[in-house]
Design a protein that fits this description.
About 85% of the residues lie in helices and about 0% in strands. It contains 2 helices and no strands. It has helices spanning about 1-35, 45-59. Helix 1 (about 1-35) runs antiparallel to helix 2. The chain starts with a helix and ends with a helix.
């Protein structure tokens, strides 16, 4: 389980970096970003859900 938790931490860190880059271009590239967007939630909500899931696994 330690390896899974570390990989999840790494994935969340990558999503945080991706979110930062997303915010930089969101105003000018929103049409391109939303085309074929694979989630039913806002990108930041998906990230928040991953963080909450990680915390629930640590309990």
């Amino acid at each position: 389980m330690d390896s899974f938790n570390q990989t999840l931490d790494d994935a969340i860190s990558s999503w945080i970096k991706l979110s930062e880059e997303w915010e930089k271009i969101e105003n000018t590239e929103s049409d391109m970003l939303s085309e074929k967007y694979p989630f039913d939630k806002d990108f930041r909500e998906v990230l928040h859900d991953l963080i909450e899931w990680r915390e629930s696994l640590k309990k």
